[in-house]
């Protein structure tokens, strides 16, 4: 496939509110892309700092920049949707005002999307940086559909600002909707009608710093995340109601907390994970590597529950351990070997 075949218009979308501290770096990283057929739609959500002036100056310098200003602050979800509704591109590339796109990001992603028309969302690995741009670590998100679908039952699985999306798919599922955890909600809905993937390349720098809104996780975001998890599980199991208490337990063990949980609740949570694992395995065509990733994650969740159960009820805990020995013998032996080290 030649270079000309990739020349689809990309709409880079950037919702911003009071982003003056790192906004210039963000915008310049987009304007420096090796793939230059894009429009850059920036929606200012009624900023009160110098953001409007920064945007005005950049818009005068580069005709690809289109600035839209909200008269009243409408928050993240509506601001992102304003950008999407004004986008003309076949693909949407998400940006956040704190972050930096590496020069080949758009090129690498659009090439992959063109070669894989069944992909609705494409993220990438990212490099976390601090306030001064110093590297903290590389975040390697799960790559392929078989294991991503399982991961999306429990968490977002994508670095939001690294994502490229097909515009028609996003519009088909109804744009961003949730007022909190809006990215997880959108990925989950897209995953029901299209394939999703992450490129195993660092294409985005994600800044973690003292003024970042994303670091301040409110109760509403946590509650929305649990409700999205619950919906995802209900869709997979074709059930109309899964107890939110069980979802909370799964979330807590995924975050490596050590809560005190009643034996009966642990038993029901373990049964739910087994049902999810069996349903997902029966409906998914795995590669060998994808199957391994899903098996390990399911085992780890069940093993943590078995440990908690053993503390709450020794007999039931032993039964849970025996289940793991029978269904995941190699992983169980490996876990024992690691404990002895």
Overall number of domains: 2
Overall average pLDDT: 93
Rough outline? elongated
How many strand elements? 9
Poorly predicted tracts of residues: none
- CATH homologous superfamily annotation of the largest domain: Spore Coat Polysaccharide Biosynthesis Protein SpsA, Chain A
What about the largest sheet? 9 strands, mixed
Radius of gyration: 22 Å
* Share of helix, binned: 40-55%
What is the rounded distance between the termini? 51 Å
Please identify the structural class as seen in this structure: alpha/beta
**CATH topology-level fold name of the largest domain:** Spore Coat Polysaccharide Biosynthesis Protein SpsA, Chain A
SSE sequence, one letter per element: EHEHEHEEHEEHEHHEHHHHHH
Q: What is the number of helical segments per DSSP (H or I, 4+ residues)?
A: 13
Strand content: 15-25%
The CATH architecture of the largest domain can be named as Alpha-Beta Complex
């Amino acid at each position: 496939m030649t270079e000309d075949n990739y020349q689809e218009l990309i709409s880079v979308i950037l919702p911003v509110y009071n982003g003056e501290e790192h906004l210039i770096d963000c915008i310049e990283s987009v304007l420096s892309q090796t793939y230059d057929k894009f429009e850059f739609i920036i929606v200012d959500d009624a900023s009160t700092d110098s953001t409007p002036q920064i945007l005005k100056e950049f818009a005068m310098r580069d005709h690809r920049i289109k600035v839209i200003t909200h008269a009243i602050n409408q928050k993240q979800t509506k601001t992102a949707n304003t950008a999407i509704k004004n986008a003309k591109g076949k693909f949407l590339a998400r940006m956040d005002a704190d972050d930096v796109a590496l020069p080949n990001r758009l090129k690498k992603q659009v090439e992959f999307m063109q070669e894989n028309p069944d992909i609705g969302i494409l993220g990438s690995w990212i490099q976390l940086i601090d306030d001064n741009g110093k590297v903290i670590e590389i975040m390697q998100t799960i790559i392929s559909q078989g294991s991503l679908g399982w991961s999306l039952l429990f968490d977002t699985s994508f670095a939001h600002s690294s994502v490229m999306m097909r515009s028609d798919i996003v519009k088909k599922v109804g744009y961003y909707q949730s007022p909190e955890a809006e990215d997880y909600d959108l990925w989950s809905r897209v995953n029901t009608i299209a394939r999703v993937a992450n490129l195993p390349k660092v294409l985005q720098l994600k800044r973690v710093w003292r003024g970042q809104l994303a670091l301040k996780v409110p109760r509403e975001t946590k509650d929305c995340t649990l409700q999205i998890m619950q919906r995802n599980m209900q869709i997979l199991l074709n059930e109309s109601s899964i107890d939110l208490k069980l979802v909370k337990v799964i979330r807590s063990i995924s975050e490596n907390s050590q809560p005190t949980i009643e034996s009966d609740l642990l038993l029901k949570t373990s049964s739910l994970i087994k049902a999810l694992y069996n349903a997902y395995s029966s409906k998914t065509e795995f590669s060998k590597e994808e199957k391994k990733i899903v098996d390990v994650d399911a085992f780890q969740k069940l093993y943590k529950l078995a440990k908690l159960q053993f503390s709450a009820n020794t007999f039931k805990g032993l039964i849970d351990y025996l289940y793991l020995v029978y269904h995941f013998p190699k992983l169980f032996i490996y876990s024992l070997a690691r404990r002895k080290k």
